[in-house]
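Hello,

Our lab assistant flagged a job as stuck in the queue for most of the afternoon. It eventually completed. Since we weren't sure the result was trustworthy after the delay, we are filing this so someone can double-check. Below is the sequence as submitted and the structure that was eventually returned. Let us know if re-running is recommended.
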Amino acid sequence: MTANISAVLTELAATKQIDRKRIEEEIKASLYSAISKRLTSDNELEILSNFENGQIYAKMNKLVVQEDLGLGEVSLSEALKINPDAELGDRIEYEIPISDFEPKIINTARKIILDKIKKIEEDRIMFDYEKQKGQIVSGKIRSIDFDGYKVDIGYTDALLPAEEQVENEYYRVGYLIKAYVTNIRKKGARVVIISRNRPEFVQKLFELEVPEIRNEEVIINKIVREPGVRTKVAVIATKNNIDPVGACYGPKGTRIQNIKKELNDELIDVVQWDEAPEQLIANAVGVDLVEKVYLADRGKFARIVLSEKNKVLAIGKNGKNIRLAAKLTGYHLDVYTEDEFEEKIAEERRITSHISELDGVTPKIAEILKQHGYTSVQDIYNSPIEELLNLENIGEKTAHKIKEASQFF
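-- returned structure --
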């Protein structure tokens, strides 16, 4: 049994990265706890150990009795073999190899040892986790199962679960990756959770690559991301002589290329933050694409006007560019060409204008139209001329006149 305990000591010290002296102390304490349950304080139990050669003994003073009934007692006949002068009630010192104890005691000690080692390991994981929480760690893929990727990050095996992975990113065992430490999940043993799809992961990559961000000369105001596809990063400088966007790209774009490489060539747009919503929206969509931004009088709504060619670029593949721009700015964004915008304004004007404002519509005609369900200029605009010609008490000339007026309203 001593050899087994020593093997456990060697294995745990090597694989769990726990201080050997700490493990030795816990083994002795566990043995003491398991054996002392069968003794009294008068037995003066002591655990003696030499872990270098695997020798562990329990030293105790056994009580001399006529017939021993417990671990802390020795029969008079046995005591006389050790000390010919022994008498009932005396104490005889024994040193018993741990391997000589009955299996039940050893199994109890082993359980206590393993529980304590587990607690030490969890405490160490928590200590290291607190130091690395919110930071990027590097690690090697150790295994793959239904829970996700198990990653050796040095002080423990972390988990990269499915919900923290980037779609279409796949790794093999032995592959080196970087990830962001998010939290600890308690599911049986404590497990450190890491992520590659959070915006915080991108932010930490920028902090690693861009000295101006580490020095707080450039501040990241906001990051929005569709993992594996596109990310937008809004930055602002704290000093007038620094170009925050240029700092993030670096000389010849080397900094941004290093970040993109880690993200498997995910598109990254670095945009200048601006307190003016119109300018921020233009920057987020693409300052070279946008011709004009109009903000709604109420609510966070904006209309963007640009050319037909630039409209496609502004929207982006599957609408991802405009969607991320909306998330970055906090505005609902609608995109129009110049012609579409003018038509939209005209439509809204027709919707909000009463039919009585149309040329050729007298109060009497307005009342007739109202009786047929026409109340706004837009109602007339949307109605086919054939429908207007069929209205009772509306002549052909009047029908054509109000229809034409609605088209140029």
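-- support follow-up --
The delay was a queue issue, not a problem with the job. The result is valid. The domain at 350-407 is CATH 1.10.150.20 (DNA polymerase; domain 1). Residues 103-132 form the longest helix (30 residues).
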